[in-house]
Design brief:
This protein is an alpha+beta fold. The chain is built from five helices and five strands; from the N terminus they run E-H-E-E-E-H-H-H-E-H. The protein starts with 5 loop residues before the first strand and ends with a helix.
Length: 134
Amino acid sequence: MGGESKVFTLAEVSEHNTTKDCWLVIEGKVYDVTKFMEDHPGGDEVLLSSTGKDATDDFEDVGHSSSARAMMDDFYIGEIDTSTIPERTKYTPPKQPQYNQDKTPEFVIKLLQFLVPLLILGLAFGVRYYTKSA
Protein backbone atom coordinates (compact mmCIF):
# COMPACT_ATOMS: atom_id res chain seq x y z
CA MET A 1 0.00 0.00 0.00
CA GLY A 2 1.14 3.52 -0.65
CA GLY A 3 3.49 5.32 1.73
CA GLU A 4 3.89 5.00 5.47
CA SER A 5 0.99 3.86 7.62
CA LYS A 6 -0.26 6.79 9.70
CA VAL A 7 -3.00 6.33 12.33
CA PHE A 8 -5.94 8.76 12.22
CA THR A 9 -8.80 9.30 14.65
CA LEU A 10 -12.38 9.36 13.43
CA ALA A 11 -12.56 13.06 14.34
CA GLU A 12 -9.60 13.80 12.05
CA VAL A 13 -11.13 11.81 9.21
CA SER A 14 -14.54 13.47 9.74
CA GLU A 15 -13.05 16.90 8.99
CA HIS A 16 -12.48 15.79 5.38
CA ASN A 17 -16.06 15.75 4.13
CA THR A 18 -16.27 17.97 1.04
CA THR A 19 -15.91 17.39 -2.69
CA LYS A 20 -12.52 19.15 -2.54
CA ASP A 21 -11.28 17.02 0.39
CA CYS A 22 -12.94 13.65 1.03
CA TRP A 23 -11.67 10.81 3.22
CA LEU A 24 -13.39 7.49 3.88
CA VAL A 25 -12.91 4.72 6.44
CA ILE A 26 -13.33 1.22 4.98
CA GLU A 27 -12.32 -1.94 6.81
CA GLY A 28 -10.15 -0.05 9.28
CA LYS A 29 -8.20 1.79 6.59
CA VAL A 30 -8.38 5.48 5.66
CA TYR A 31 -8.66 6.47 2.00
CA ASP A 32 -8.35 9.94 0.45
CA VAL A 33 -10.83 9.64 -2.42
CA THR A 34 -10.78 13.33 -3.39
CA LYS A 35 -9.19 12.62 -6.81
CA PHE A 36 -11.81 9.92 -7.48
CA MET A 37 -14.89 12.04 -6.68
CA GLU A 38 -15.69 12.98 -10.30
CA ASP A 39 -14.92 9.51 -11.67
CA HIS A 40 -16.97 7.50 -9.13
CA PRO A 41 -19.76 5.67 -11.02
CA GLY A 42 -22.28 6.37 -8.25
CA GLY A 43 -21.46 10.08 -8.14
CA ASP A 44 -19.79 12.18 -5.50
CA GLU A 45 -22.94 12.30 -3.32
CA VAL A 46 -22.53 8.60 -2.55
CA LEU A 47 -19.00 9.14 -1.31
CA LEU A 48 -19.91 12.26 0.66
CA SER A 49 -22.76 10.44 2.43
CA SER A 50 -20.25 7.91 3.76
CA THR A 51 -17.86 10.43 5.35
CA GLY A 52 -17.49 10.79 9.11
CA LYS A 53 -18.27 7.14 9.87
CA ASP A 54 -17.12 3.62 9.22
CA ALA A 55 -18.22 3.21 5.58
CA THR A 56 -17.45 -0.52 5.41
CA ASP A 57 -21.12 -1.56 5.33
CA ASP A 58 -21.94 1.05 2.67
CA PHE A 59 -19.03 -0.21 0.57
CA GLU A 60 -19.90 -3.90 0.99
CA ASP A 61 -23.65 -3.43 0.39
CA VAL A 62 -23.01 -2.12 -3.12
CA GLY A 63 -20.97 -5.17 -4.12
CA HIS A 64 -17.88 -3.56 -5.63
CA SER A 65 -15.88 -5.47 -8.23
CA SER A 66 -12.39 -6.81 -7.68
CA SER A 67 -10.99 -4.05 -9.90
CA ALA A 68 -12.70 -1.44 -7.70
CA ARG A 69 -11.14 -3.06 -4.65
CA ALA A 70 -7.72 -3.01 -6.35
CA MET A 71 -8.12 0.73 -7.06
CA MET A 72 -8.42 1.38 -3.34
CA ASP A 73 -4.68 0.84 -2.90
CA ASP A 74 -4.05 4.04 -4.85
CA PHE A 75 -6.10 6.08 -2.36
CA TYR A 76 -4.82 4.52 0.89
CA ILE A 77 -3.32 7.04 3.33
CA GLY A 78 -3.35 5.26 6.71
CA GLU A 79 -5.20 3.33 9.38
CA ILE A 80 -8.05 4.35 11.65
CA ASP A 81 -7.76 4.28 15.43
CA THR A 82 -10.58 1.80 16.07
CA SER A 83 -11.05 3.06 19.63
CA THR A 84 -12.41 6.33 18.18
CA ILE A 85 -15.16 4.59 16.21
CA PRO A 86 -18.35 4.39 18.31
CA GLU A 87 -19.77 0.95 19.11
CA ARG A 88 -22.83 -0.08 17.20
CA THR A 89 -25.88 -0.40 19.36
CA LYS A 90 -27.68 -3.68 18.92
CA TYR A 91 -31.36 -3.38 18.03
CA THR A 92 -33.66 -4.79 20.67
CA PRO A 93 -37.31 -5.07 19.67
CA PRO A 94 -39.90 -3.59 22.01
CA LYS A 95 -41.58 -5.88 24.50
CA GLN A 96 -44.81 -7.39 23.25
CA PRO A 97 -47.83 -7.67 25.55
CA GLN A 98 -48.31 -11.07 27.13
CA TYR A 99 -50.40 -13.33 24.92
CA ASN A 100 -53.47 -14.69 26.67
CA GLN A 101 -53.83 -18.27 25.46
CA ASP A 102 -57.17 -18.74 27.17
CA LYS A 103 -59.38 -16.70 24.84
CA THR A 104 -62.39 -19.02 25.24
CA PRO A 105 -64.60 -16.62 27.27
CA GLU A 106 -64.01 -13.78 24.80
CA PHE A 107 -64.77 -16.06 21.86
CA VAL A 108 -68.01 -17.34 23.43
CA ILE A 109 -69.18 -13.78 24.16
CA LYS A 110 -68.49 -12.65 20.58
CA LEU A 111 -70.24 -15.74 19.22
CA LEU A 112 -73.28 -15.10 21.40
CA GLN A 113 -73.33 -11.43 20.38
CA PHE A 114 -73.60 -12.62 16.79
CA LEU A 115 -75.97 -15.58 17.23
CA VAL A 116 -78.51 -14.19 19.74
CA PRO A 117 -79.73 -11.37 17.45
CA LEU A 118 -79.94 -13.83 14.56
CA LEU A 119 -81.94 -16.21 16.73
CA ILE A 120 -84.32 -13.41 17.77
CA LEU A 121 -84.71 -12.34 14.14
CA GLY A 122 -85.37 -15.93 13.05
CA LEU A 123 -87.92 -16.39 15.85
CA ALA A 124 -89.70 -13.16 14.84
CA PHE A 125 -89.95 -14.30 11.21
CA GLY A 126 -91.17 -17.74 12.33
CA VAL A 127 -93.88 -16.29 14.56
CA ARG A 128 -95.00 -13.91 11.81
CA TYR A 129 -95.08 -16.68 9.20
CA TYR A 130 -97.10 -19.10 11.35
CA THR A 131 -99.52 -16.49 12.70
CA LYS A 132 -100.18 -15.10 9.22
CA SER A 133 -101.04 -18.48 7.69
CA ALA A 134 -103.51 -19.40 10.45
